[in-house]
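Problem 12. The chain below contains 308 residues. Write out its predicted structure in token notation.
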Amino acid sequence: MAAIDLDKMLEKIKASQWALADIDWDAPGAELITPEQWPKLKAFMADLMWIEHVGARGFAAMAKKAPNDTLKEIYVYFHAEEQRHANAEMALMKRWGMLDGDQIPEPNINLRLVIEWLDRYSDEMPLEALGSVIPMLEIALDGALCKFLLDTVADPVCHQAFARINDDESRHLGVGFHVLEMQGHGKVYRNLLKMVATFADPRLLLGILSYVPLLNRMRDNIVALGLKEESLYAAMDKFRKIGGRTEQGRRNPWYQVISRHGGWVTNRQNRLYHVPVDALVRATDFIPKRVMPPIPSWVKELTWKPAA
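Solution.
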């Protein structure tokens, strides 16, 4: 795959913008959601909407660290696009009778912890860290979740919305893997030293403690909905294959760490990894809501209303 021309990509992004008002949310098809699907689909859509907003917050932080103005502007657009995806998914929930008034669905506790970490610390993390984790989350969770949704939901308006969302996501991933390769340039030992210094930062360790159980919880939630684990693992394996397609990508130590971790997540036989992480997931269930700080104010930008 040829390297991306970021200036051309920015023009393509600008030409591909869309709005919720472009979709007829009252068109026929909502009745195709079956009573059996409805409760699990409601929880699924709430998780998916919050994952989009995690991506939005990540892109906002990456824009502040971008090495040039073109990439910065691209990340600003991606931030807005992820918010639009979250809003479109809320519009589908509204269409399917899953929201009361202007209610915003509650994130599960692990998403809530990741959101809290992003709000506190992501602006201070190096681009190398965020630029490696965000593509993994997008290709694994976003990709697998969206495919599963389109395979199981017959509503044509859902397919219309996700045709637009998936077009955006393909550009996000293209830029994400391009940046992974950019970061693989230079001396390996220098890149490695920078990564080791970042890992010594206790703020990153807190991020890892919130990120790792999120992946396990989301895997369990997806499997409970009927998605075959193999489908999720195939999506995660794409990160390893695409990120490592060039020597520069393979030389990026962050790629090596994230792809190795993806292998641990997908190997349920690896008890050394999964026993403590599953225990972390169970432990987070006992965190009382009252000790969690309020949901960040930027969440108020979420809305199902088509004018957004």
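Discussion. DSSP finds twelve helices and no strands in the chain. Students who got a different answer should revisit the alignment rule from Section 12.3.
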